[in-house]
Amino acid sequence: MPSPKTAQAPTPIKGSAVKSLIGATVGFFIGFGAVSLFGPTAHGFIEVMQLTPAQVGFLVAIPMLTGSLLRIPFGAWVDRNGGKLPFLILLLASVIGIAGLYWMLLTLYPDHLTQAHYPWLLFFGALGGCGIATFSVGIGQVSYWYPRNSQGRALAIYAGLGNTSPGLVAIILPLIIAAGGLWMGYLVSLAIVIAGIALYVVIGFNAPYFQLRHQDVPPDQAREEAARHGQELFPAVSMFKTLRDSAMSWRTWPLVILYFTTFGGFLALTAWLPNFWQTFYHATPMAAIALTAGFSLFSSIIRVPGGSWADRFGGELVAAVALLVLLAGALLMTFSGSFWITVAGEILVGAGMGVNNAAVFKLVPLYVPDAVGGTAGWVGGLGALGGFVVPPLLGSIAERMGTIGYARGYVVYVILALISLLFTVLLYTTRKGVAIHTSPVRVAPHRVK
């Protein structure tokens, strides 16, 4: 005899796909701002703490370490509860990290901030970076709301608008610091994150299946009811299973490489470019900020049409073209000694990175539809790790080669682009094996298993 809970009609589904997309985008936007925790302020720390180029590279990269690795378990956790809880946990951890930096700067900067405090900067920066990990959570949350044939556009909007955060931070944070001091910049950042959390709580609803499961509706009944609300993707049985299933799919790993190159590379450049422009071309701080913000915003915004192109022409083809554009830009930045040619190279790099990022996450729910959260975790987590790995490499090359090393270091991107092109060709030549997943046919409610 069924229990009272299974006999009762479920509570009406809250929210909608559009509201969930807005909520996830807002949450990711405020969390992703941690990418610029140190980039726009690195020169201030260099002057006060006498940091080496390698130490600067590690400092600007440290938020990406936690922001990358935590994407894996938290992205998989979406397949268990829908995303809202892990989203909030990550944002609260980021609040603690930014609050710690604010306290340090308020009490120590500038006279008492020394090399001895460098580990504490790294610690609070790592906590602040937890907000970056919201990306894989939002990918899963949005994917479960939207049908397959419109996921490319929805995910591109989510990631593209969310990715504008570092560019805006790179513009606004130095202005706040100039007006009120370094500590004021982090205080305002803290207030913005708290306000964003409140907004996400109000509109960031889980997909219908997860709402029904939270009401103790049995899995089969929840799937049928959710399908009637338009949900097409459903999670694996457990968090371990979604990680295992996605890891066992070989197509997950080429996507990791592609995302390491372009999203991890994007994170690295957003943090590194202010220092590059000021050191190599002796640009003014405001010019360096403008160039960095322009790169970040352009690469983020072009991701939106990039998702539509991936829907129309196919993710592999769009990714290959984007990587060729990235390769051309990286060659210009590596070997040019001209300011404006390097600017042109930066524009090409930004375009290639943004479009490829959209193409990659068009492919995630199509290749591994039964473990979207786990796949998003592996791709988003290990891919974003490039933001932690690349800046110390750039700093090390600059330290060994001197000033010219700031330009020659971009050969790292040339190599990564070539490797990613090879993996894209591999995906394209084996695409027939996943033809069943790329069809945008709607799943009928009674066929959902």
UniProtKB/TrEMBL annotation:
<keyword id="KW-0472">Membrane</keyword>
<dbReference type="InterPro" id="IPR020846">
    <property type="entry name" value="MFS_dom"/>
</dbReference>
<dbReference type="InterPro" id="IPR011701">
    <property type="entry name" value="MFS"/>
</dbReference>
<keyword id="KW-0534">Nitrate assimilation</keyword>
<dbReference type="InterPro" id="IPR044772">
    <property type="entry name" value="NO3_transporter"/>
</dbReference>
<feature type="transmembrane region" description="Helical">
    <location>
        <begin position="21"/>
        <end position="46"/>
    </location>
</feature>
<feature type="transmembrane region" description="Helical">
    <location>
        <begin position="253"/>
        <end position="273"/>
    </location>
</feature>
<comment type="similarity">
    <text>Belongs to the major facilitator superfamily. Nitrate/nitrite porter (TC 2.A.1.8) family.</text>
</comment>
<feature type="transmembrane region" description="Helical">
    <location>
        <begin position="279"/>
        <end position="301"/>
    </location>
</feature>
<feature type="transmembrane region" description="Helical">
    <location>
        <begin position="85"/>
        <end position="106"/>
    </location>
</feature>
<feature type="transmembrane region" description="Helical">
    <location>
        <begin position="155"/>
        <end position="177"/>
    </location>
</feature>
<keyword id="KW-0812">Transmembrane</keyword>
<dbReference type="Pfam" id="PF07690">
    <property type="entry name" value="MFS_1"/>
</dbReference>
<feature type="transmembrane region" description="Helical">
    <location>
        <begin position="339"/>
        <end position="359"/>
    </location>
</feature>
<dbReference type="GO" id="GO:0042128">
    <property type="term" value="P:nitrate assimilation"/>
</dbReference>
<feature type="transmembrane region" description="Helical">
    <location>
        <begin position="313"/>
        <end position="333"/>
    </location>
</feature>
<feature type="domain" description="Major facilitator superfamily (MFS) profile">
    <location>
        <begin position="20"/>
        <end position="432"/>
    </location>
</feature>
<feature type="transmembrane region" description="Helical">
    <location>
        <begin position="118"/>
        <end position="143"/>
    </location>
</feature>
<dbReference type="GO" id="GO:0016020">
    <property type="term" value="C:membrane"/>
</dbReference>
<dbReference type="InterPro" id="IPR036259">
    <property type="entry name" value="MFS_trans_sf"/>
</dbReference>
<feature type="transmembrane region" description="Helical">
    <location>
        <begin position="410"/>
        <end position="429"/>
    </location>
</feature>
<feature type="transmembrane region" description="Helical">
    <location>
        <begin position="58"/>
        <end position="78"/>
    </location>
</feature>
<protein>
    <submittedName>
        <fullName>MFS transporter</fullName>
    </submittedName>
</protein>
<feature type="transmembrane region" description="Helical">
    <location>
        <begin position="371"/>
        <end position="390"/>
    </location>
</feature>
<dbReference type="GO" id="GO:0015112">
    <property type="term" value="F:nitrate transmembrane transporter activity"/>
</dbReference>
<keyword id="KW-1133">Transmembrane helix</keyword>
<feature type="transmembrane region" description="Helical">
    <location>
        <begin position="183"/>
        <end position="203"/>
    </location>
</feature>
